[in-house]
Amino acid sequence: MSYIDYRVDDAVAVITLNRPDKHNAQDESLLRDLDARWLQAAGDDAVKVIVVRANGDHFSAGHDLKTPAPGYFREGKTTLESAYAWETEHYLGFSRRWRDVPKPSIAAVQGACVAGALNVIWPCDLIIAAEDTFFSDPVVKFGVGGVEYHAHTWELGARRAKEMLFTARKLTAAEAFAAGMVNRVVPRDELDTQTMDLAREIAEMDAWGLATAKRAVNQTLDIMGQQAALQSAFDIHWHGHANALLRTGYPLLTPGPLPSGQQKTKEQNP
């Protein structure tokens, strides 16, 4: 069963997270299907713009902490090497690849957009948020310094990023707009319409011009050090796993079963 729906509307590929009963929480299957659809859209000459959206009340509750990820295990157990490789591919790696797809992309976001959900929207070129949207990365209170695609500083600026991380407070759509993270804030019932209107407007532009404009902006960010910063922050993120393991006996944000004899407490559950 796929948790991703895909359609092409004129020159716009619409990728939809479709696990609303779980608030579009991301297990391995959802992430792999999402990546496959990104690559499908990237390789389709008829597609000029990519839209990422979600069914249900919430865009995404982030990582699915209850569903084991088979790729995390090697010879029946989790090892540092297998876990690091899995997260490198599914979190940092997928997000980097989506960011560099040479076609404009728009994230349409509603409701909760929590932690790992930021890994999905921040690689997109534009973000449109419904008025009821909130953004949150609460993992500092669990001993981890932020989600894997650590673009907080680039998206919000240093001081707003620190406030978001230090307090685990929810950032409203209006606050995200004021910080420059969100392009537009729209009524919930107009989210899809306004997103598609913008996508179609962009699709009228020359494809090569769009690709080179995106490349120019992304390369400017790279020259400023974004890619190196993302990799460095990802490695720091892994220190957080070790801290969580030492404090609670459970490496928070790591998919898979609890160690033998361990029980996750209410405090450990985001």
CATH superfamily (homologous) name? 2-enoyl-CoA Hydratase, Chain A, domain 1
User: Oligomeric form of this entry?
Assistant: single chain
Catalogue the unreliable spans: 253-270
Main beta-sheet annotation: 6 strands, mixed
User: Helix segment count?
Assistant: 9
Bin the strand percentage. Answer: 15-25%
Mean pLDDT: 86
Strand order of the largest sheet: 1-2-3-6-8-11
Radius of gyration: 18 Å
Helix content: 40-55%
**What CATH architecture do you see?**
Alpha-Beta Complex
Looking at CATH, which topology would you report? 2-enoyl-CoA Hydratase, Chain A, domain 1
The end-to-end span amounts to 26 Å
Count structural domains: 1
The structure class reads alpha/beta
Briefly characterize the structure.
With 270 residues, this protein is α/β, with parallel strands linked by helices. It contains 9 helices and 11 strands.
Describe the structure.
- The protein has 270 residues and is α/β, with parallel strands linked by helices.
- It has one domain: Alpha-Beta Complex (2-enoyl-CoA Hydratase, Chain A, domain 1), CATH 3.90.226.10.
- Helices cover 43% and strands 16% of the residues.
- It has 9 helices and 11 strands.
- The protein has helices spanning 28-43, 80-99, 118-121, 152-156, 158-167, 173-179, 191-203, 207-223, 226-248, and strands spanning 4-9, 12-17, 49-54, 73-74, 77-78, 105-109, 112-114, 126-130, 134-136, 171-172, 184-186.
- It has a 6-stranded mixed sheet with strand order 1-2-3-6-8-11, sandwiched between helices. Strands 7-9-10 form a 3-stranded mixed sheet.
- Strand 4 (73-74) and strand 5 form a beta hairpin.
- The longest helix is centred in the C-terminal third of the chain and has 23 residues, at 226-248.
- The chain is globular.
